[in-house]
Design brief:
Blueprint lengths: L3 E6 L9 H8 L4 H28 L4 H10 L13 H12 L5 H10 L4 H10 L45 E2 L8 E2 L16 H9 L2 H9 L3 E8 L6 H11 L5 H13 L8 H4 L3 H6 L6 E6 L3 E7 L7 H9 L3 E7 L4 H6 L14 H11 L4 E7 L10 H17 L7 E5 L20 H4 L7 H6 L13 E10 L2 E10 L1 E3 L3 E5 L3 E10 L13 H4 L1 E3 L3 E7 L11 E4 L7 E12 L7 E2 L3 E6 L2 E14 L6 E3 L3 E2 L4 E14 L10 E6 L5 H20 L3 H8 L1 H4 L1 H15 L5 H15 L1 H12 L4 H26 L7 H22 L9 H18 L54
Parallel strand pairs: 4-6, 4-7, 7-8, 8-9
Antiparallel strand pairs: 1-18, 1-25, 2-3, 5-6, 10-11, 10-17, 11-16, 12-15, 13-14, 13-17, 14-16, 18-24, 19-23, 20-21, 20-25, 21-22, 21-24
Helix pairs in contact: 4-5, 4-6, 5-6, 23-24, 23-27, 24-26, 24-27, 24-28, 25-26, 25-28, 27-28
Amino acid sequence: MSRHRNMHQLDDDDFYDEYDDYDEEYWEEEDDDSYWQEQERLKKEQEAARQKAAAAKLAPKPAVKTQKKTVTLDLKKPSKKPTTNKAEDEEKERLVVSMGFSSERAKVALKNNNGDVQAAINELLSSPSPVISMTMAPPSTMTPPPGYNNAKSTSGVQGSWAPPEPTSKPKVEFNIKKKAPVVNTPVAQPKKAETKKKSVNEVVYQKQKIVPEMEKKLKDQKSRLSMVILGHVDAGKSTLMGQVLVQMNMVQKRTVSKYQKQAGEIGKGSFALAWIMDEDESERERGVTIDVATKHISTKKHDVTVLDAPGHADYVPAMITGAAVADVGILVISSTRGEFESGFDTAAGNGGQKGHVGQTREHITLAKGLGVSQLIVAVNKLDAADPAWSKQRFDEIEARLKPFIKQNGFKLNRVQFIPMSGLTGVNVKESPSKTDQNSAGLASWYSGKTLLEAIDNFEPAKRNIEKPFRFIISDLYPEGKGLVVKGRVAQGHISVGDKVAVLPVGDVASITRIDHGVAIAQTDTDDDDTERMKIALAGDSCDLVITGIDIARISVGNVISDASTVLRPRIKKKMKAKILVMEELTVPIIRGSQVLMHMHCLDVPAVISKIISKVNKRDGSEIPKPRVLTGGSNATVEIKLNEKLCLETYSDCRSLGRFVLRRGGDTLQADFEYLILSETYSLLIDTYVRDKKERNHLLNAIETVPCVQKKAEWALQWCERENASFAERCVAFAAVEGIFFSGSFCAIFWLKKRGLMPGLAFSNELISRDEGLHCDFACLLYKQLVNKLPESRILEIITNAVEIEKEFITDALPVELIGMNSGLMQQYIEFCADRLLFALGCNKHYGTANPFEWMEMISLQGKTNFFEKRVGEYAKSGVGGEENHVFAMDADF
């Protein structure tokens, strides 16, 4: 069964940001200095504002205004705070604090501007530095700051504090995360200020002061990259990475010899290099990678964490986990005839299976959607091409892949194509030579980079060290009195001794130790930098040892953030997001579709609760409230999750602002049956309707055919109507299953009677049997309810459904056939409605006999299974009798 993949980015207001535009900015060289230029501009603006305020202070002022100024600057707290919306006030304060101002100044500015965030920010940007000017004698209990005295001040006020002569201008320190500079100036402090504990915001500010120092250290070190290995199953990913480790002397020769001997003994000698990556016995036995394998390599410019992802379609979730934490990727392509086509093509005409979606195509789409921005395409097994080292085959693969890679958002100047052989090691580390028998064929036409040179050619990933700390937990275990949590720092930085919050539970813990897997900080003396080892920065894969939290309160997929509430990510169970549906989608997405959301280490069931809009492919306009999403749709939807998650906009945090939705496979067993039925309908249309335009018209019937649209709207209203009781929903469900399908099923059985379309008839038998069971289940469930509906209400629901189905049949059968026409079919629908009314405990309404006697003779003997019944029971003899007016789960069908 084909599956579809949905790529998502979150809006600024609705958890989304256009990442293509973001990526363009990301790669502009001038962006490296734009932040500091902005800081200089703000510095000049604040200095001008401070001078303006000083001049205004010297100007004569009315006495009344002076009195008001004195009252406003009173340091005493108000006796009683007004009643406000605490959550809303905290959110407003967080927005103002995010611009670089202290929490106290933010509160005052918001109060002065009646909660207007923009006005408060403008006031703070235009106001002078926070110097408290006293125009009246300070309280006697307040101790003057160092350098001040209680003598008569320069203003002539007896008893006020006279500041010392300034020796230099106030020192301006820049908050790395925020855009506004913070000015340190003398402020009156209580007596016990030196012993008072620092606030969380002050701790965060102190942390940010070390960022410039850390950035300087990072410039002297190799950059750190996470690199995911992608590709179709059997493309040679693990073998290629094993060859890389061997040629870089990362594996002992005796280990390689041992693997070669063991693999040869079981007749899999070519698997020896792959076993370096696939260490699990089940992976070696089956010859496929199942979980993400991790290794470390080092080039001239980069320290690289290699993530070998599985290529089999059954293990796509594991591949998503690896790609979600990767900066760059290597796409391994098998160049042998047939293997490349099976991984990339989607139709039988191009060499693939009908309806098949190759993992090459899917991995490219997923990698870009999960944040991989640079790619190496390793054209592997070129020595096994026909002829060996064929330049024509290499050019053919490159020509076919480039348009698709570009279509998925990759910039072609960041994509490198490298020919090689992972098994023999040609062009992995050493360039091909015309004198070498193994590589002479490649050397005759290729003189470009080797694989390791291409890896070294990757641009360093931009690290958002200045942003709020985000650490995604991938594993955890107890150690002594604390816990060890493994994972990767998505952004920000943390130091030993810092307080952190574990989300979504919200518990606060302490960092007692940071363990880095490899020596990452190298000084000029090539010794480990112990200070660097006590800090985890954005991009580091490390272990955090934390205390102060119970292991039962934390799990894989949790997020560790700064302890400050204003710096934590949002925790949501419902969100609005923009999605891009893959072109290969065969089963359309409608409101209520169940999907599986993959985000970093998490797989969470979710529901498409609303389809808000989609983009018109012709003119780019917005189509509001579409009924269905087909392949290639770009839409805005509302998604409801089964549990609360940490979510942020893509611009705030890439790792928490991007995710993948998938539908299909065993994960969604509760809805798996409906996926099978929908897939069957789609395949039948694809088989019997050859005209592409007509096929699209039928696949989108919910939008293009009015009578079908009316049926869909009637069914969906019971899902959306908030005041509908469970009993009403149950009866409506029975009507959908027992009435809306009846006419179509009967028409296809008429075809079977005449020996026409056997494939369609057989599929119809299986589907009609299942829908009949659904109808019976709804009736049995309704019989168990205590609060049943009045008979008049049941009759109203059933007759309404009958009229809609009659309208559908009239449009579906515009001509009269022998023994089949819309008039007879309407009688049959009324007969089915009477049967359903009896099943629900009501009297017959229409009193119509079954016009199709042959419907009573149909059976599925020989095809039944557990809880399966004959379709002929739909019109079982005597079903309207009083003695049969009873349903039981142990009935003998």
